[in-house]
Amino acid sequence: MAYPMSVMELAVKREVQIIEPAWSMPHFLGKLSLALKDEGPALSTAPLDVSQVDPKVALVVRTSGSTGNPKSVLLTAQSLIASARASHKFLAARAGQRWSLLLPTAHIAGLNILVRSIELGTEPVGVESKAEFSAIVPTQLHRAVHEDKQLLAHLQNCQAVLVGGARLDPNLKQEAQELGINVITTYGMSETSGGVIYDGQALDAVSFQIMEGRIALKGPQIAYGYLEGGFPIENGWFVTDDLGSIVDGRLVVEARADDQIISGGENISLSAIESYLQGEYSGLEIVAFAKADAEWGEKLCIATTSNIALDEVRSKLANKFGSHASPKELVIVSNIPYLPIGKPDRRKLSNDHS
User: Fold this and answer.
1) Which terminus of the chain is less hemmed in, N or C, by CB atoms within 10 Å?
2) Residue 130: which residues within 8 A CB-CB, separation 6 or more?
């Protein structure tokens, strides 16, 4: 539902407190626990234009804005707890077991680790300690498989490792599983209190369908709305910006609807291009991005850390998608820039190579 003005103007509101990076873990868990019990202020990952929010709101999470303007997502205690309990049910987690916190707590994935830890009555640990469960992004899994031996050993000792936040290359997943990591791919976002689809399957009380090509989700984990308004709910379904399909009863995420560029009058999906190339060049870092161009309007560009020939990439993409998907530039960089949650920073690539 959209965040209604009538709610914004309620006389009874809840104080909101900004999460401080200097908070110790026990202090942070204590603050979050009070927020979930409605016994303390709501918490926010970023400064807001307001000092109070609707009393139902326990947590305000600022989105990364990787594909659009950042938004302030309003999450209730009920949604956050439903998310944690559904995850634990899928994983058969028990009280006393531990999660490792390997993601920033400025994002829902890291905050979920804290909520799950509260539910299990434990405190999250770091990579140097043993944990039954962990959650990471594909970039971290790539590093564990190819270079970070400490992270690899930590993940191998976990009962399950959730991997989300960006597309997971199937070849990387297979490599990780062959090394003894029990990888579970997840799909979700701040607006769904984190992952609600595990390995293509809906968590407890969650439903999914495809509405005009877009993935739509329903369940108790769905956010209360945006602080800015305009929450995309249709007949009780949260309509995402992701394109998908249902194959054998499982959800398949195909591309972002809002990463489409128009080059020479043709629509091109950056994530579809990226996904295909990552499959063709397994194990390599490859990102598709766009730059403004006087001739094309927007032109497709490829960034990679490896020495790949532009003509080879053009041939592959033209054969797969058509000549309009032939990139105009290929840049070789020392490092792919990533947002804190692990998504490639396409805006930075575009700005740095304009």
Assistant:
1) C
2) 98, 154, 157
